[in-house]
Amino acid sequence: MSSEPQVPRLVAVTRPLDRIPDIIALADPENPLVWTRGDRGCVCIGETLRLTFTGPDRYAEAAAEWRRIAELTTIDDPVRLPGTGLVALGTFAFAAESGTTSVLVVPRTLIARHRGSAWITEIRVTDADGAESSIEQLAGAMPQLPEATPLRPWTGTALGTRAAEGAPGVAAYLDGVDRAGALIAEGALEKVVLARQVAGTIEGDADLRTPITRLAVSYTDCWTFAVDGLIGASPETLVRSTDGAVSARVLAGTRRRHRDDEPADLRARNELLTSPKEQHEHAFAVQSVVTALAPHVRSLQTSEEPFPLRLPNVWHLATDLGATLSENSSALEIVGALHPTAAVAGTPTAAAIAAIAELEPFDRGRYAGAVGWIDAAGDGEWVIALRCAQVDPPSSGERTVTASAGGGIVDGSNPEHELAETVSKFRPVTDAFA
Questions:
Q1: Is the Cβ–Cβ distance between 425 and 387 less than 8 Å?
Q2: Cβ(413)–Cβ(178) under 8 Å?
Q3: How many other β-carbons are positioned within 10 Å of the β-carbon of residue 354?
Q4: Contact 88, 66 (CB under 8 A)
Q5: Average pLDDT over residues 286-307
Q6: Where is this region: Disordered (predicted)?
Q7: Which residue from 133, 253, 295, 383 could staple onto 278, CB 3.0 to 4.6 Å apart?
Q8: Measured between alpha carbons, how far is 418 from 348 in angstroms, rounded to an integer?
Q9: Is the CB of residue 10 less than 8 Å from the CB of residue 84?
Q10: Residue 128 has pLDDT above 60, yes or no
Q11: pTM listed for this prediction
Q12: Which domains are present in the chain?
């Protein structure tokens, strides 16, 4: 009988900083690890531990493994704010059958800010006998805030000029929407989210802080992230858990913005608010989240009506949810219960997943999965990986960038309109890598 793998023992020391850092400027230019929005966020430098997961139980296995690690970690944290002490950043594949690995990364150094406060955390592997001395050693040798390096020149990319390898082109996508509409008309399902992929290349040593900065500056209502090569800015909060309080934001229903034509822009917003098709799609998405959250929370509340969320590229229908977390549930367990939502899969879920596998002849990878962070208490923030691209490791002096975007297909969906919606949703990434 094989014994269970030994759980690594970690030590984490957090200390306050006397100045507010520029989070993105401190990131590794070629392998950034960043989570930021406005005056909150963190940058991670180096790796102390990397946990990998695959298959249908990847979220449950990650939650269980993280709980075991957190229980054995020695933490020295006088700051005690969200994101202090032991923290891991993670990104998870959309599909159980995906060839892409899901990961949790524990950094060696984490530098973070929360409004007017800032701190630095060092995390190392230790052993049970040396825990106390390691705390003392680590606390006595806390590094100073590193100096940011200037951004290197950015030469751009051809992102969006070709379909990603194995992904269908425009004609195939339009055909897929037609086929999805036929399945819906037959009663096989009510909604399915179909995506397409585009790709391009950048130089192998390109400074990835440039697209991250562009996303953070342009999409201030989104979480901008860079985790294990996945870079994006997501408007959809899957779950935020802090001291027992849980919140989420559901987005479903989209209209393209007309930023240079205010009357047309207002018409697009009003069409979104009054469209039976969009309201129907949104109701699917909200109900799927409410149903999934119910076993894990108490006193669940939602905003009375969907509201229009204005982003630089699109209008979205949005609903905010709030609840109190039940005991013994972590943010990762809630993420596992919620994924996949109707907003990125469809309704009923099993039928929608089967339709996606049939109609999308490519692996979504981490697109529409979850990306975020978790701490020792099980609190954290996780968003759906949207408006994002996966940047592959360098090969022959180049890096491939693969972006994904999709939309919800329901009864009455028009293929050309759905294609135009994906073009609008690609815009944050294509602009960021331009």
A1: yes
A2: no
A3: 16
A4: yes
A5: 85
A6: 395-415
A7: 253
A8: 20
A9: no
A10: no
A11: 0.89
A12: 9-432 (3.60.120.10)
